[in-house]
Amino acid sequence: MYFNIISTEILVTLIVAVITVGATIAIFVIKQIREKNTFNIAIIVEVHHLLNVVNQHKKWLMADKEHLVHHPLLPFSMDMFDTQAAQMGLMDRKIIDDVVRFYGFLKFINAYQASRDEHIKKGLTDDFCLRYLQLLNKLLREFGPMFMKHIKSNNYHKQHQLRKISLHVHDNDALETMVKQGTPH
Question: Would you give the end-to-end CA distance of the chain in angstroms?
Answer without folding.
Answer: 95
